[in-house]
Design goal:
The chain contains 21 helices and two strands. The protein is mainly alpha-helical.
């Protein structure tokens, strides 16, 4: 029972996305802005082949997780993805934890893009920053700089409120532009790149490799947007699951390509001193400052695809939590005309409007703060995959990973172990432990979640009807509260 049903309104998200739309959402969500601003750091930390190895290993981990998502998405093609999977397998409160975790990851990236856009635009228009406001972590925040991010947040949120089809059309167009940029990077590497520039291939020790690997959850988050939009996709459930895995493979190929082409363009010492290494490398490949700006246009395209996809995904998660009574019903309201979760979109869009006022240093903090939450969600989905395989062996699975034997269970256990190991890398004392600022953002998000977690009814048993039971318990509690008032 949806919130709208409980309130007597007409429910229902609109099915308007096709194969290409869904794939563009997943792939585009993963190919955000990180590849533009972080590649220089990857090469400096791990060397060319060290960074490639980290991307391949990270992509492999995400592909294994993606396989569990693929089966669950095909079996439960419903808006909310993780929320529905975990609710059916583990119950209401674990479902809230998993949903809040992945929503936190989405929100940090949406906020990241709102900061990344003015950072990118300033590369093209160096005199853009005017009217100083304050300084945060050594970065002077200017009003005009921040307003670029705010205005963009308003536009992206408005497009999503207008409808998922409009968001999908925007996504497909911008992803095609990104692909064109990628082809130009490959052509430039063959024409103007040099193998000797790729040295060093590896840096001493393993710390550089792990420094790149811990960014993987942030870089690859987005394939799970496809499950979030499953109720709005008009293709067979089995096909939806396959698109999840395909989007991960494509993203891995993209990141490896970016590392190799960028490192071939300039010596490592020059890349380390570049403002935006990938853009400067692209310009060097073609011997043109104009081409550097073309690459930045590709970066802006990446910002828009990731921003658009993850705003869509986060809003569907918040909507699903409200639909089951775990968040206030206000978040579950659909727009009367466009049938989109308008209130959830406004809430997340509002958060992204605040981010630019914290300056460019916020970019790194957001990358690091969102990654642990993302891994928590992936771990719970992996456990869910195993639980449902054992508890509901006859569950309708249009896409059964690993066939009818035990291979599927092996994949599930590998996914559990890999996600647990990846989470451990963020802990103090580990090679890629986080500083206090990301942990502070992480703590704020989970403190907000705790307010709602303890309001989720306890004792609701997992199962196919768990969502209805949660909503019934919530409605009884609200009715009792209204009578007592």
């Amino acid at each position: 029972m949806a919130v709208e049903q409980a309130e007597g309104n007409s429910p229902g998200l609109v099915k308007s996305l096709g194969n290409l739309d869904a794939l563009a959402l997943g792939f585009g969500a993963m190919i955000g802005f990180g590849w533009v601003v972080l590649t220089g750091g990857w090469l400096d930390n791990a060397g060319t082949m060290g960074a490639v190895l980290a991307m391949v290993v990270g992509g492999g981990i995400m592909a294994v997780v993606g396989l569990t998502y693929a089966e669950l998405t095909a079996a439960m093609p419903k808006a909310g993805g993780e929320h529905n999977f975990i609710l059916r397998a583990l119950g209401a409160r674990p479902s809230f934890i998993g949903s809040w975790a992945i929503t936190g990851g989405y929100v940090t990236i949406v906020a990241f893009e709102a900061v990344a856009l003015p950072r990118t635009v300033e590369y093209i228009f160096p005199g853009m920053s005017q009217i100083p406001l304050w300084t945060i972590a050594g970065f002077e925040v200017n009003l005009t700089w921040a307003l670029v991010g705010v205005l963009s947040a308003i536009i992206i949120t408005w497009i999503n409120i207008r409808g998922v089809k409009q968001a999908g059309v925007l996504q497909t167009f911008v992803v095609l532009f990104l692909v064109a940029i990628g082809l130009l990077m490959i052509a430039g590497a063959f024409a103007g790149g040099e193998a000797k520039n790729m040295e060093p291939f590896f840096t001493p020790g393993t710390s550089g490799f792990f420094a790149v690997l811990v960014a993987v959850p942030f870089l690859f988050i987005g394939f799970d947007v496809i499950p979030q939009s499953a109720e709005e996709v008009k293709i067979p459930a089995k096909q939806i699951g396959k698109l999840v895995v395909l989007s991960v493979i494509l993203a891995t190929v993209w990141y490896v390509m970016v590392v190799l082409t960028t490192s071939s363009a300039m010596p490592a010492a020059q890349l380390a001193g570049a403002d935006i290494a990938t853009a400067d490398a692209f310009g060097a490949l073609f011997g043109s400052d104009l081409m550097a700006k073309v690459l930045i246009a590709g970066g802006i395209a990446g910002i828009l695809t990731s921003w658009n996809s993850l705003l869509l995904g986060a809003s569907r998660l918040v909507y699903s939590l409200a639909r089951s009574g775990m968040l206030p019903s206000w978040f579950g309201k659909l727009h009367p005309k466009y049938r989109t979760p308008a209130n959830a979109l406004v809430f997340i869009g509002g958060i992204s409007m605040l981010a630019p006022f914290f300056g460019a240093e916020m970019l790194g903090w957001l990358v690091d703060s969102g990654a642990p939450s993302i891994i928590v969600a992936y771990f719970l989905v992996s456990v869910t995959f195993l639980v449902l395989r054992k508890r509901e062996p006859k569950m309708d699975r249009p896409l059964r990973v690993g066939g009818t034997g035990n291979a599927g269970a092996v994949i599930g256990w590998i996914s559990v172990l890999l996600t647990a190991a990846l989470f451990s890398l963020y802990m103090p004392g580990m090679p890629a432990s986080l500083s206090w600022e990301p942990w502070a953002i992480f703590a704020i998000w989970w403190a907000l979640g705790a307010i709602y977690f303890f309001k989720v009814p306890a004792g609701i048993k997992p199962g196919e009807d768990a969502e209805e039971k949660v909503l019934e318990a919530v409605m009884r509690r609200r009715s009792k509260g209204a009578r007592n008032a």
